[in-house]
Specification:
The protein has helices at residues 6-16, 30-40, 54-64, 78-87, 99-107, 119-128, 138-150, 166-174, 193-208, and strands at 18-22, 44-48, 69-73, 92-93, 112-116, 132-135, 158-161, 179-182. The relative contact order is 0.16. Helix 4 packs parallel to helix 5 (99-107). It starts with 5 loop residues before the first helix and ends with a helix. It is of the alpha/beta class. Strand 4 (92-93), helix 5 (99-107) and strand 5 form a beta-alpha-beta unit. It has an eight-stranded parallel sheet with strand order 3-2-1-8-7-6-5-4, with helices on both faces.
Length: 210
């Protein structure tokens, strides 16, 4: 089977409209979060580069859940981008605006969700070839700020990224966000069966609103 192209991966991300961000303090927490979110129906997730053992966990997630899109998050530098590509990440997510990350990603046929906040950073991300712009942090500046950005950047796919409730996600999507990514408000380590079921129910609440 041939690997999907960068554009095919980009389209899948935009069609899914939802990414779960896994950022853990212990490597052993990752696999169970991935499995539970996959069971709930989440189709795209990222494992951040400041999670212990993140490269191995990207590899493991892809092997255990081939139906998922598995990306690398918190990819701040070209060196991290190279590590992420080697680990098998299918997309890269940055908190910052960095042309070198785009260059590495595109050389490996991978899309980049590039972090940006100001109009200048959004314009730079577009000029650098970012496949999707990640507005971060969104909740600090809010929907009114985002809608102001859409004036001059109405042709740019901008995802809203922050911790937010399912209800708040609906507001962002209605405001014009191309998608949403959320972190430990959803992708947290569970300690018992009840918490696992609660996490699945929450994930399904997000997904039902897309």
């Amino acid at each position: 089977m041939t690997n999907p192209t960068r554009e095919q991966l980009r389209k899948r991300l935009l069609n899914n409209k939802f990414i779960a961000i896994i950022r853990c303090t212990e490597q052993r927490q990752v696999a169970s979060i991935v499995a539970n979110l996959a069971h709930a129906g989440v189709q795209a997730l990222e494992i951040t580069s400041n999670t212990p053992g993140w490269q191995q966990e990207i590899h493991n997630a892809r092997a255990a859940h081939p139906e998922l899109l598995v990306g690398a998050g918190t990819v701040r530098t070209a060196a991290l981008a190279k590590e992420a590509a080697s680990a098998g990440a299918q997309f890269l997510v940055t908190p910052n605006t960095n042309k070198d990350v785009v260059d590495v990603a595109h050389s490996n046929n991978l899309p980049v969700l590039m972090g940006a906040l100001t109009p200048t950073e959004v314009a730079d991300a577009v000029d650098y070839g970012a496949d999707i712009v990640k507005l971060f942090p969104t909740e600090v500046f809010g929907i009114a700020y985002f809608q102001s950005l859409l004036g001059p950047f109405n042709d740019v796919a901008i995802m809203a990224v922050d911790n937010m409730s399912p209800e708040r996600m609906t507001q962002w999507l209605k405001a014009g966000a191309a998608g949403v990514a959320v972190g430990n408000c959803l992708a947290y380590a569970c300690t018992n069966e009840s918490e696992l079921k609660q996490q699945q129910k929450l994930a399904q609440d997000y997904l039902s609103r897309l």
